[in-house]
Write a sequence for this structure.
C-alpha cells in the first residue's frame, strides 16, 4: 500500500474516532441539595426589610442532555404531573407547551415552582422529590416547547404516531 | 491407532466436563428439568447433543484417516496425456459425495422432525384444567407478579419471585410496559418474549420443590443483566399458607422504631413509587413492598435481602445497580435505621 493512501486511511480513522463521542450520562447523581430551596429565582426586587442574601446564581445542571430529558419525561409521568398538566397541553393545571409562563419560564423559575408550589393548586414537591430529579423534570418541561437544542431532544415521539405529517413538523421534541 | 484413541478419549472428557459444568448450576439449568415442558426440551437437547457429537467424532476420524492413509488415487491415476480422473476413481468419488449429501439431508430431516415434534408436544401441554394464572410484567429492570383470579379481592401482587404449588399447571401471561423483555427459567421452560401491548402465554409446571432462578433473556437496557426472577416451587399446603399471608395487608407497626420507619417511608419519595397495602402508600411505579421482608432478594434479586444490603440499596441505589430507576434520596442516618427495620418487618 502506498504511503499516501495509508495516511489518508489513518486520517479517516481519526475522524471516525472523533465522531464517536457519546453523551455523558450522570447515572449516579448526588442526592444533596445544592440550590437554595424555593429561592432559586428572584421574581421581584422587593423584599420586606431590604435584601438579605445576595442572589445566588442557580443553573440547571442537566441543560441540553438527552438522557436527562428522557428521565425527566419518565418522572413527569411517575410523579403524576401528567394528571394536571396532561402531556403539556394542560387540563386542570396550565399548559406547558405555550411560551407563556405565569411564574417565569427560566429553568430557575420552573425549579422554584416545583419546589415550593404555586397558589391555586400546584403542590410543593421540594420536601419529597430529590433535587436532581426536579432539575430533570425542569429540563423535560423546557424541552416541551422547544427550549432544548434539537440535538438533545428525540426526533420522534415515544407514542405511536399515525399521521406522518406530524412527524415532519416535529422540531425540538415538541410539535410546532 | 494410539493417538486416535487418545483424541477420542479427550473428546469424551470434554463432553463430561461440559455435563458437570451444566450440572453445577442446576438451579438455572436447562439440562436439569423439573417439569414436563423442560423435560421435553432437555430430551431434545440431549438428542441433538449425542447425534451431533457422534457425527463430529465420525467426521474427525474420517479426516484423520484420510491424512494418514498411503498416498494413492488422484496423483497416480490420470489417463495418459490428460488431466481427467480414471473412470474408476471418478465413480468412487461421485459415490462418496452423493452418499455424504444424502446422509446429511436425512440427518437434517431427523433433526427437524425431532424439533417440530417437541414444539408440538409443548403446545399440547397448554390449556390444562385446575391451572393457576399468573401475570408477569417485565419492567426496566424488575418483574411484577400478579396472581389472577376471578375474584379480584383475593388477587396477590408481588415482585421478582413467583411461588407455585408443586404438580399444578401454571399459565403465565407475559407482558411488558416498556421495552421487550424475555422470560426464561431454564429448569421450567424455554424463553418467551414479553412484548409491549401484547400478551404471550407460557405454561409451566414444577414437579419437584425447590428455588429455580431465571433471568431476562432479551437485552432491555442498562440493567438487563440484573433482572433476575426466582420461581419458588413448594408443596400445595405451603403455597396456600404463603398465598394467605400475601393476601393480608401490612400489619401496623407497634414498636416506636418501626413507627418512625413507617413515617420516614411516608414522608419521602418512597411513597410515590411503592405500595404497602394497609397504609397510605399506593405508588405503582416500583415493586409492591407489602410483604417485602419475606422476599429472597433486593433490586430484582441483584443482592440477597439482608438489612445491610437494604441499607446500601436505599442509601445509594446507583452503586448496586447503575442506571436503575430508584431515586437516590438524602436520608440522614437517624432515619435510615428505623426505615430498614420497618421494611424488613414486613413479612
Amino acid at each position: 500500500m502506498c504511503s499516501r493512501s495509508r495516511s489518508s486511511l489513518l486520517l479517516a480513522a481519526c475522524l471516525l474516532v472523533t465522531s464517536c463521542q457519546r453523551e455523558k450520562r450522570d447515572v449516579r447523581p448526588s442526592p444533596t441539595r445544592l440550590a437554595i430551596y424555593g429561592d432559586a429565582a428572584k421574581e421581584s426586587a422587593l423584599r420586606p426589610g431590604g435584601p438579605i442574601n445576595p442572589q445566588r446564581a442557580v443553573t440547571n445542571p442537566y441543560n441540553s442532555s438527552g438522557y436527562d430529558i428522557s428521565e425527566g419525561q419518565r418522572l413527569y409521568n411517575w410523579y403524576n404531573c401528567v394528571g394536571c398538566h396532561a402531556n403539556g397541553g394542560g387540563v386542570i393545571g396550565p399548559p406547558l407547551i405555550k411560551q407563556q409562563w405565569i411564574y417565569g419560564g427560566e429553568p430557575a423559575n420552573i425549579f422554584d415552582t416545583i419546589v415550593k408550589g404555586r397558589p391555586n393548586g400546584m403542590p410543593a414537591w421540594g420536601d419529597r422529590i430529590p433535587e436532581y430529579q426536579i432539575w430533570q423534570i425542569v429540563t423535560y418541561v423546557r424541552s416541551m416547547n422547544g427550549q432544548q437544542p434539537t440535538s438533545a431532544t428525540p426526533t420522534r415521539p415515544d407514542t405511536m404516531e399515525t399521521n406522518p405529517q406530524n412527524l415532519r413538523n416535529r422540531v425540538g421534541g415538541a410539535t410546532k | 491407532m494410539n493417538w486416535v484413541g487418545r483424541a477420542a478419549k479427550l473428546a469424551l472428557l470434554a463432553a463430561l466436563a461440559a455435563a458437570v459444568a451444566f450440572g453445577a448450576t442446576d438451579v438455572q439449568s436447562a439440562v436439569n428439568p423439573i417439569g414436563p415442558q423442560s423435560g421435553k426440551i432437555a430430551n431434545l437437547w440431549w438428542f441433538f447433543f449425542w447425534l451431533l457429537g457422534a457425527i463430529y467424532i465420525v467426521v474427525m476420524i474420517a479426516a484423520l484417516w484420510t491424512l494418514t492413509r498411503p498416498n494413492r488415487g488422484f496423483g497416480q491415476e490420470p489417463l495418459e496425456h490428460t488431466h481427467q480422473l480414471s473412470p474408476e476413481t471418478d465413480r468412487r468419488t461421485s459415490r462418496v459425495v452423493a452418499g455424504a449429501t444424502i446422509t446429511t439431508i436425512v440427518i437434517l430431516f431427523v433433526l427437524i422432525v425431532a424439533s417440530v415434534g417437541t414444539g408440538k408436544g409443548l403446545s399440547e401441554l397448554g390449556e390444562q384444567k385446575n391451572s393457576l394464572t399468573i401475570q408477569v410484567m417485565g419492567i426496566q429492570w424488575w418483574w411484577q407478579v400478579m396472581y389472577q383470579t376471578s375474584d379480584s379481592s383475593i388477587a396477590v401482587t408481588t415482585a421478582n419471585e413467583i411461588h407455585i404449588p408443586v404438580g399444578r399447571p401454571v399459565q403465565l401471561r407475559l407482558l411488558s410496559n416498556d421495552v421487550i423483555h424475555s422470560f426464561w427459567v431454564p429448569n421450567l421452560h424455554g424463553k418467551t418474549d414479553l412484548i409491549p401491548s401484547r400478551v404471550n402465554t407460557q405454561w409451566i409446571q414444577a414437579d419437584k420443590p425447590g428455588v429455580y432462578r431465571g433471568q431476562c433473556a432479551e437485552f432491555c437496557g442498562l440493567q438487563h443483566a440484573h433482572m433476575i426472577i426466582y420461581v419458588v416451587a413448594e408443596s400445595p399446603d405451603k403455597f396456600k399458607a404463603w398465598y394467605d399471608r400475601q393476601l393480608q395487608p401490612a400489619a401496623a407497626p407497634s414498636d416506636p422504631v418501626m413507627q418512625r420507619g413507617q413515617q420516614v417511608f411516608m414522608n419521602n419519595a418512597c411513597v410515590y413509587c411503592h405500595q404497602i397495602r394497609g397504609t397510605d402508600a399506593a405508588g405503582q411505579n416500583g415493586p409492591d413492598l407489602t410483604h417485602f421482608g419475606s422476599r429472597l432478594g433486593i433490586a430484582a434479586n441483584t443482592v440477597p435481602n439482608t438489612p445491610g444490603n437494604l441499607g446500601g440499596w436505599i442509601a445509594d441505589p446507583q452503586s448496586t445497580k447503575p442506571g436503575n430507576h430508584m431515586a437516590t434520596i438524602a436520608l440522614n442516618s437517624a432515619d435510615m435505621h428505623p426505615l430498614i427495620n420497618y421494611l424488613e418487618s414486613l413479612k
Observations:
- Chain B is about 45% helix and 15% strand.
- The CA atoms of residues 125 and 164 of chain B lie 17 Å apart.
